[in-house]
């Protein structure tokens, strides 16, 4: 009788605890493979301003999986991080690195502005004011032989624009931040 009651209690507790545990731990192992997406002809991109384009971040969920990315050509007088095949076009995420609100590029100010808590980013996406903890995330880009620009996986950057595996908003990457906020095990940056 006692054993039966314990088993019944265990089953009842599992009914509550297992879904909660899965909800909490599941995202850590969630795999979001970012497909390469054709977005624009290289010739159509400026190197002194940004053009917004819509890309799909998560497939199979309709509009909810789409996001805006800001694109421009690399500009040698502005972009000082090491040049390679993945940054001939600069692609910035619109997700604010404070709490994730969508930022907007204001061309007159040459700044990205977040409407939620006043976060400001400069022309390169570096933090210029407010509470964001790191620069805007970026996307790998590549140029096809036909001169088309493709946008690939997202990565995060620190203040030096060194690349890191994607992190969530609110997770700094300078100093000990990169160790305090490791990336999810299933997500790695492309050139790692
Ligand atoms: S979410 Fe952008 S400043 Fe708070």
TrEMBL record:
Gene Ontology cellular component annotations, sorted alphabetically: membrane
UniProt GO MF annotations: 2 iron, 2 sulfur cluster binding; metal ion binding; monooxygenase activity; oxidoreductase activity, acting on paired donors, with incorporation or reduction of molecular oxygen
Pfam families in alphabetical order: Rieske
Gene3D superfamilies: Rieske [2Fe-2S] iron-sulphur domain (2.102.10.10)
Disordered: annotated span: 160-192
Residue ranges with Basic and acidic residues bias: 160-170
Keyword Disulfide bond set for record: yes
Rieske domain span: 36-150
UniProt KW keywords: 2Fe-2S, Disulfide bond, Iron, Iron-sulfur, Metal-binding
Function: Iron-sulfur subunit of the cytochrome bc1 complex, an essential component of the respiratory electron transport chain required for ATP synthesis. The bc1 complex catalyzes the oxidation of menaquinol and the reduction of cytochrome c in the respiratory chain. The bc1 complex operates through a Q-cycle mechanism that couples electron transfer to generation of the proton gradient that drives ATP synthesis.
Identification of the protein by name: Cytochrome bc1 complex Rieske iron-sulfur subunit
């Amino acid at each position: 009788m006692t054993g039966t009651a314990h088993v019944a209690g265990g089953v009842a507790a599992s009914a509550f605890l297992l879904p909660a545990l899965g909800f909490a731990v599941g995202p850590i192992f969630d795999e979001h493979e970012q497909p390469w997406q054709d977005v624009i002809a290289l010739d159509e991109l400026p190197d002194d301003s940004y053009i917004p384009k819509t890309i799909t971040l998560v497939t199979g969920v309709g509009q909810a999986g789409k996001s805006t990315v800001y694109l421009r050509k690399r500009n040698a007088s502005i972009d000082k991080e090491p040049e390679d095949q993945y940054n001939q076009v600069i692609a910035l995420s619109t997700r604010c690195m404070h709490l994730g609100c969508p930022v907007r590029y204001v061309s007159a100010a040459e700044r990205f502005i977040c409407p939620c808590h006043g976060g400001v980013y400069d022309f390169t996406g570096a933090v210029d004011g407010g509470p964001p903890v790191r620069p805007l995330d970026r996307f790998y880009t590549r140029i096809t032989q036909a001169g088309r620009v493709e946008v690939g996986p997202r990565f995060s950057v620190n203040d030096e624009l060194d690349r890191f595996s994607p992190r969530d908003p609110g997770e700094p990457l300078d100093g000990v931040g990169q160790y305090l906020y490791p990336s999810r095990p299933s997500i790695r940056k492309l050139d790692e």
